[in-house]
Amino acid sequence: MRRPFRLADTVTYVVLIAGLLITLAPFVQSLLTALKTPEQFASSPVTALPNPVTLQNFGDLLARYGFLRAALVTLAVVVTIVVVQVSCSVLAAYAFARLRFPGRDLLFWAYLGTLMVPAIVTTIPLYTLFAGAGLRDTFWGIIAPSLLGSPYAVFLLRQHFLAIPQDLLSAATLDGAGALRTLWSVAVPVSRPIIATLVVITAVSHWNNFLWPLIITSGGDWQVLTVATASLQTQYNGNWTLVMAAAVISLTPLLALFLVFQRQIVRSLAIRGIN
């Protein structure tokens, strides 16, 4: 039998569709602007469709303004940080959740307390240390502050590892598995949705990171996409078609990443426990 029509359902769908349109509108507008020439953008309404469609802005960014190198640098930075940071976070979270050692809980809460410290507070000390070590304008200077785990990731993974039944881990121990073997063969496989979600969160966070790369580099060889995009707004007198093309280039990999991991993200949100 068909469910009877309810006015509340209609109102709900109208609100959801309106929210969807409001959310997507800036992205669609960015794409439409990126496909226009500067002359079209200046002479037509903002919402007008590009006529004719042009890819000149994308070609100029990649060929003339070094955006291909900026994209490769950003990709290398993000991949390195994601692999090392998530790996370190998994190891630390498992130790805090399942291993016993003196001062474990005190150390965990002290580490978690660093979440309360704004990042801007540590920026000047970090810059002083890295500049003194000769790491300005280097790849390692960009990635080093973010490599050794994240308090948020460690907290999330620790809570998940605590929810794994002890009998499951004890069975691996009885089979002769050590702590690392148990982590790799038991804890990690049942935690894939959470780990995949952390991969996406970490990748998006560092793909969009602007302040630290701006401070530790001075452009040139190690300029990342966010800094390169910001420089277009001043260096080229606010050429918005060029800026929107840069925004589209920056956004596309993130959309692809979400499409790859969307099932894992939904599964991580649906987890209520492990049976």
From TrEMBL:
The keyword Membrane applies. Residues 71-261 form the ABC transmembrane type-1 domain. Its main location: membrane. Pfam families: BPD_transp_1. The keyword Cell inner membrane does not apply. It is found in: Cell membrane. One of its GO terms (biological process) is transmembrane transport. GO terms for cellular component: plasma membrane. PROSITE patterns: ABC_TM1. The chain crosses the membrane at residues 12-35, 67-94, 106-127, 139-157, 240-261. Keywords: Cell membrane, Membrane, Transmembrane, Transmembrane helix, Transport. It is a multi-pass membrane protein. Belongs to the binding-protein-dependent transport system permease family. This is Carbohydrate ABC transporter permease. The lineage of its organism: Bacteria, Bacillati, Actinomycetota, Actinomycetes, Micrococcales.
